[in-house]
Amino acid sequence: MADGRFAPSPTGDLHLGNLRTALAAWLFARSTGGRFVVRMEDLDRVQSSATHEASQLADLAALGIDWDGEVVRQSERFDRYEAAIAELVRAGLTYPCYCTRREIREAAMAPHEGTSAYPGTCRDLRATDRARREQEGRPPALRLRSDGRTVIIDDALIGSVSAVVDDVVLRRNDGVPAYNLAVVVDDAAQRIGQVVRAADLAGSAPTQRHLAGLLGLPPVQYAHVPLVVGPDGRRLAKRDGAVTLAEQRAAGRAPADVRRRLLISLGVGDAEAGGPNSAVVAGFDPRAMPRGPIPVAGLLVP
Length: 302
Ligand code: GLU
Ligand code: ZN
Fold this sequence. Notes:
The chain is an alpha/beta fold. The chain is built from twelve helices and twelve strands. The strands form five sheets. Strands 1-2-3 form a three-stranded parallel beta sheet. α7 links the parallel β9 and β10.
């Protein structure tokens, strides 16, 4: 049994790729008899909104996805993240970073495009340099002081993923905890056994696994779901047309039809895909899931 979760950022409507990943996460958890929770990753207060949260939850429900307990919001859990950060600070595993790069601003969001490793600019600043920057009034972000090790995870869908642990941002310079820290703290707090999410986040998993270890938290298993791609072969986006459930509805396709197509694309048999949740869950076999990128066109055929 492995508890699972779907953890969207409420910054817009979910598209067919997000919805397919949500269904996959739900199927993985439910097919093992596990709990399934929804967590709103709303650390980015500028882009997140209650309206987006409500429409995302309505879309999940319209696809027949059910979840256990209340929806958790990261914006309400800063004290947990600060406690974890304090542990890392006490262990000497952090350093202040005065860089003003976009990367620091964006640390609240999951890096779907992948990020380049931090070049280490502020890693070994002398005390005088630090003092000068403080005097200039530049508030620092806080970074993990990694040891350059390579961590390999064994992913249930994409096989082994290897990456050098990066000096990721733990707290942005405006005081907001960063995605990589929050996700690790929450997955442990919510007792998640398996993280099922989009494949463009696979590169973050080794650093997250390492961070969990530093915090004395149990490792989670991973299953990174191959992306839905647009006609141009790039990951699905707004530009690709009717990609949200609302747009699909407007185009005359009911949520039940979309659900059926998405389930079939996840390897659920035709007969089960149109049935109730119990049949769908019984008809799911992770080994039957396609392993390559999924062209959106295949999801739109009636
Ligand atoms: N919040 C991330 C997103 O919007 C997902 C992060 C995760 O699943 O670890 O896609
Ligand atoms: Zn720096």
